[in-house]
Design brief:
- The complex is a heterodimer of chains A (614) and B (236).
- With 614 residues, chain A is α/β, with parallel strands linked by helices.
- Chain A is 42% helix and 12% strand.
- Chain A is built from 25 helices and 14 strands.
- In chain A, strands 5-11-10-14-12-13 form a six-stranded mixed beta sheet. A four-stranded mixed beta sheet of chain A has the order 2-1-3-4, covered by helices on one side. Chain A has a four-stranded parallel beta sheet with strand order 8-7-6-9, with helices on both faces.
- In chain A, a hairpin with a 2-residue loop joins strand 3 (135-137) and strand 4.
- Chain A starts with 10 loop residues before the first helix and ends in a 13-residue tail after the last helix.
- Chain B is 19% helix and 15% strand.
- The chains are: A alpha/beta (614), B alpha+beta (236).
- The interface between A and B is large, with 46 and 43 residues.
């Protein structure tokens, strides 16, 4: 691969980057991202330099580089195109878009052009399901792609047009918030009373500063607010737990790493309610006595980085962050932005903390909880973007107001990210408690045959369950509602998401690292018409083992796409099973067995290739 | 026994523990065996292989990392747990190339021994992943065949914590995660045959190979040729 001279990093340049982050190994992700951006790779030689600057071994640096999808040890193109490869994108014409990119660039997915100009890759859900197919071109996001548009984009890129200017010729002259609004549509379909309706600036924070910290926690607890990332842990209880230690240093972390496929609500909140989110973080900091905060923004949302930084700067300038907030003596809090680098599992609180510590994004053990021993071993509250926004609003309007919406066990409103086969994909802020059918009605999906609620780690249900309620205890969700029409192949969806989990497993524990690979194989075998009843038994047994023995939520939920469809669409599986009459061993796969001979002979088999005529 | 000590049960047997002890530490002290692969005496606990999964008051937990607690009711030797453990051992077999008849570690191998203990007798439903990573034989005294690695990380912890060297480390994510060395190959590291990390008790399988020591103990007279892993105490 050809590299121009200017791209080769000198040790002095690398050392200067490390020095900017105080040679701190905890800032490894920042260091490596900076190196990657400037030199388009982190080569083994560079790892050596980073290792000696930060006092680590080279293999420890390699561990980080090789963990994150957006870091690489081999050079990437000056323009790196990452196509979102979610199932929704595949159902929205991704194939044609890929074909157009490949034809125009003259490279295949996974390749870098010989002159080092372009790399073409696919990546997991980038949070644009409501405007699929989408792609990242370097940090810039482009949505609603078509083959025709791709041809035009590549022509411009080849002429040296900056990716940002593909959005509009005046892109860089605009304020950051306008830039991201130009790039990505919000698609707000329903604005509710709490988050997307009119929101007075910082009145929740003002009230919180006038209260004692315990009072703040009491109000949050009283509101019944539950975490909006999916698990629904009571927000007040989490805050209280973080105060039950004698630590003098605590942290408030905002999880803006919404990686669950089909979820894009935080994208809209980050675009339109970033101030509210930081306000909520500041309230939480007040409640637990934290002076340091961090926003972990997923690498896929790098296009919003300047916007978030501008919001933080603006708040510092107005005395809403920093020393003596709102003139309140002794109330100090500031927030740092940490960029992720392409890893789904980093949305898990422990993995997120590992990532912030400069490590591969491996979850911590279940105990101790982050509120006890989190970032750097100190008490850390990690909440979702939406949860922090809710906290600010609850402080402003009070617990009773909040409890007046939704249901007893799930008070307030929730943002739903609706995508897939419907007329109105986008964001719906609705009170908890509505039925899925009601939401499908609003979204314009009368044909819906299957709906994935809560992303692949949630559940896939059929029509007979559309009367169920979107609440904790029935259909809990971090907000993803993905709709599939009757023409979709559910096994294709299951196959895709098992591959997704295989790709995103961190690899720390055996069941998730290895077990998911074999579950995926089993699904593919059934999808290919080679499965037998015994394969279903195998799937059930292995799924149980993976769920019961995995170390974190990823493995504890990864078999859900299979298990929920086995339960809700049993006929689909039985129709695909092969009878037992062919006297073959269960492990025998004829396609596999003849593959080598087929490739040597360079022709297909008349008997065993069903697509022979193609 | 300190005044802070407390009791809990493992399969109905009362066990004494002190605060900070894990379930496995307390079990070991009481002479109760909980199957394990990534955990070994003298090294930090990892909780990665999950073979030591027990039910702690109904909830799954890795015994090597889960703290013991007063009145905890731990299930260990149940059919359900042993079935799951067998699945985990099967997964490890299928992830790598574990061909016992041609492996020098046969008989001393904890993975093989665990398969016997957990009665892994049926053929696998799917062919294994059959990795073909190159063997690193660059070092004069040590060779590394990571195709036989089970990612237990014992060598990583031993090198970092006991030898103070950091010769080994994990790289990669998910199924691509593997043990790598801190250099272009083993010869370009500080590895020494006297390191704890390359001693026989650290690598549970045949991944780290000590050169010129093969078959010094004949097959049939090796550690697990005499009885099941975990039952060594009983047979003496």
């Amino acid at each position: 691969m050809v590299q121009s001279q200017t791209d080769i990093a000198t040790p002095a340049e690398i050392e200067a980057i490390c020095a900017r982050f105080d040679d701190d190994p905890h800032r490894m992700l920042d260091i490596l991202q900076e190196v990657q951006t400037r030199f388009r790779c982190v080569s083994p030689e560079v790892m050596e330099v980073v290792a000696s600057a930060t006092g680590l071994t080279r293999v420890a640096v390699d561990a980080v580089v090789s963990f994150y999808s957006f870091l690489s040890d081999a050079p990437k193109g000056r323009v790196t195109i990452r196509l979102c490869d979610d199932i929704v994108d595949r159902f929205s014409g991704l194939d044609a878009v890929i074909a157009a990119f490949e034809a125009e660039l003259g490279i295949k997915v996974g390749q870098t052009s010989g002159d080092g100009a372009f790399s073409l890759e696919v990546t997991a859900c980038i949070g644009m399901c409501d405007q699929a197919p989408a792609a990242m071109i370097n940090d810039v996001v482009l949505t609603s792609l078509t083959a025709e548009r791709v041809r035009d984009l590549v022509t411009q890129l080849k002429e040296g047009v900056d990716p940002g200017l593909l959005i509009g010729s005046r892109y860089y002259e605009k304020p950051p918030q306008d830039r991201i609004r130009d790039a990505v549509r919000n698609n707000i379909r329903r604005a509710g009373a709490v988050l997307l309706g009119p929101v007075p600036a910082d009145s929740g924070l003002k009230k919180a500063l006038q209260m004692r910290p315990e009072q703040v926690i009491d109000i949050i607890e009283d509101s019944g607010l539950r975490g909006c990332g999916g698990a629904g842990f009571p927000a007040g209880k989490k805050l209280r737990h973080a105060t039950q230690n004698d630590s003098t240093r605590r942290f408030v972390f905002c999880n803006a790493d919404e990686g669950e496929p089909g979820t894009f609500k935080d994208r809209v909140l980050l675009t339109e309610r970033a101030h509210l989110m930081v306000e909520g973080m500041t309230v939480a900091a007040r409640a637990i006595g934290a002076e340091e905060g961090l926003i972990y923004l997923r690498g896929e949302y790098t296009y919003m980085r300047d916007h978030i930084l501008a919001v933080l700067d603006d708040r510092r300038a107005r005395g809403l962050l920093g020393r003596n907030i709102m003139g309140m003596e002794g109330s100090h809090f500031d927030v740092r932005l940490q960029m992720g680098a392409g890893s789904y599992v980093c949305g898990e609180a422990g993995a997120l903390i590992s990532s912030c510590e400069g490590l591969p994004g491996e979850p911590k053990g279940r105990l101790p909880l982050p509120t006890e021993r989190g970032y750097l071993g100190l008490p850390t509250v990690v909440n979702n973007v939406e949860t922090f926004c809710h906290i600010a609003r609850v402080m402003d309007r009070g617990a009773e107001w909040f409890r007046g919406m939704g249901t007893d066990t799930s008070p307030g409103t929730k943002l739903f990210s609706v995508s897939g086969d419907c007329l109105n994909p986008g964001i719906y802020e609705l009170e908890y408690g509505l039925t899925l059918a009601e939401l499908l009605d609003m979204a314009g999906a009368p044909e819906a045959a299957a709906v994935m609620v809560g992303g692949p780690s949630g559940t896939i249900i059929g029509r007979e369950h559309f009367g169920r309620r979107l609440v904790f205890g029935d259909l809990p969700t971090g907000g993803a509602v993905m709709i599939f029409g009757p023409h979709r192949n559910i096994l294709e969806i299951v196959d895709y998401y098992m591959g997704f989990f295989v790709h995103e497993s961190c690899g720390y524990c055996t069941p998730c690292r290895v077990g998911n690979v074999f579950l995926h194989k089993a699904v593919q075998k059934i999808r290919a018409g080679q499965g037998k009843q015994a394969d279903l038994d195998y799937i059930r047994e292995y799924s149980a083992t993976i769920m019961e023995t995995s170390r974190c939520g990823l493995g504890q939920t990864s078999p859900n796409p299979i298990l929920s469809t086995l339960k809700n669409f049993p006929l689909l599986y039985s129709a695909m099973l092969k009878g037992g009459g062919d006297r073959t061993q269960p492990t025998f796969d004829i396609q596999d067995a003849i593959e080598e001979a087929r490739s040597i002979a360079q022709r297909r088999s008349y008997i065993f290739d069903r697509d022979f005529t193609q | 026994m300190s005044g802070d000590s407390f009791t809990f049960t493992i399969d109905g047997v009362e066990v004494t523990a002190t605060p900070g002890q894990t379930i496995m530490e307390a079990a070991d002290a009481a002479g109760i065996y909980i199957p394990r692969l990534c955990d070994v005496e003298g090294l930090r606990h990892q909780g990665g292989c999950r073979v030591c999964t027990v039910k702690a008051s109904g909830r799954s937990a890795a015994a090597c990392t889960q703290p013991a607690a007063p009145d905890l009711v731990v299930d260990n030797e149940t059919d359900h747990l042993n079935t799951m453990r067998r699945h985990l051992v099967e997964m490890l077999f299928q992830e790598g190339n574990h061909l016992c008849p041609v492996c020098e570690a046969s008989g001393n191998c904890e993975l093989q021994a665990m398969a016997y203990r957990l009665e892994m007798v049926e053929p696998f439903r799917f062919p294994g992943l059959e990795p073909c990573r190159p063997v690193d034989a660059s070092h004069p005294d040590i060779a590394l065949d990571t195709n036989r690695c089970i990612s237990c990380g014992r060598c990583i912890r031993a090198s970092a914590d006991v030898d103070g060297k950091g010769i080994f480390g994990y790289v990669g994510r998910g199924i691509h995660r593997r043990v790598a060395v801190n250099g272009s190959d083993l010869a370009h590291t500080d590895a020494d045959i006297n390191d704890h990390a390359v001693s026989r008790q650290v690598c549970p399988v045949g991944c780290i190979i000590r050169k010129r020591e093969g078959f010094s103990i004949p097959i049939g007279e090796r550690e697990y040729d005499h009885g099941l892993i975990g039952d060594e105490g009983d047979s003496e």
